[in-house]
Amino acid sequence: MTTVRLPLFPLNSVLFPGLVLPLNVFEERYRAMMRDLLKTPEEEPRRFAVVAIRDGHEVAPSAPGMPDPTAQPDRGPAAGFGPDPLKSFHRVGCVADAATIRERANGTFEVLATGTTRVRLLSVDASGPFLTAELEELPEEQGDEAGALAEGVLRAFRQYQKRLAGARERSLSTGVDLPDEPSVVSYLVAAAMMHDTPTKQRLLQAPDTASRLRDELKLLRSETAIIRNLPSLPSAELTRSPTSLN
């Protein structure tokens, strides 16, 4: 088994291969991570791993907490993730390649990264200024009938988009070519659907592309049927809640 050790960036969201990840980095532990990544030559990939948080806080408390206002907040690379950070994270994540790491005058960072490959989290090391993890790369197997399933998912996804645009009283962008490679379709649709983190995590860690597409087809059909009834609700309620693609 080939493993790799990379900096670890836990988030309250799921990153999929091929998807762009913008980050506003302001906590010291992650600023230290970005400073370390900047030491990597520009011609080499500046990689870190993103995992979704199962139990914990993306941003560590920076002020005294409740109910005891004198209690000091957690400090250090594992702050907010308990005594064993490994238990706080979902075990399947995604490697991110940082194309842009720009330091602002106040010491924070603006980062633009892209998901590349899925990885399994084997261990977490909190001994340094930021978390690092030992990771095992997960191959993407196609599975049976992935091509036909991708076509079905794309058709269902277009219907989902139309229904969602109508329910949210927004126009639907047209003329955008969607991919036809099954694994790319599966990740794009997984990221674009409006679902909670556990559902997106389930899609990320699907055993193969075909399994992910089958799950997405069921979700899309179910969601489209639900959205079909939304216009009967008051329009103010439909436009009040924000939309998130990740």
Automatic annotation (TrEMBL):
Residues covered by region (Disordered): 58-84
Domain Lon N-terminal intervals: 6-224
Pfam family, one: LON_substr_bdg
InterPro entries: Lon_prtase_N, Lon_prtase_N_sf, PUA-like_sf
Residues of the signal peptide: none
Cited SUPFAM superfamilies: PUA domain-like
PANTHER family (UniProt xref): ATP-DEPENDENT PROTEASE LA (LON) DOMAIN PROTEIN (PTHR46732:SF8)
The protein's name: Lon N-terminal domain-containing protein
Annotated source species: Streptomyces fuscichromogenes
Lineage per the UniProt record: Bacteria, Bacillati, Actinomycetota, Actinomycetes, Kitasatosporales
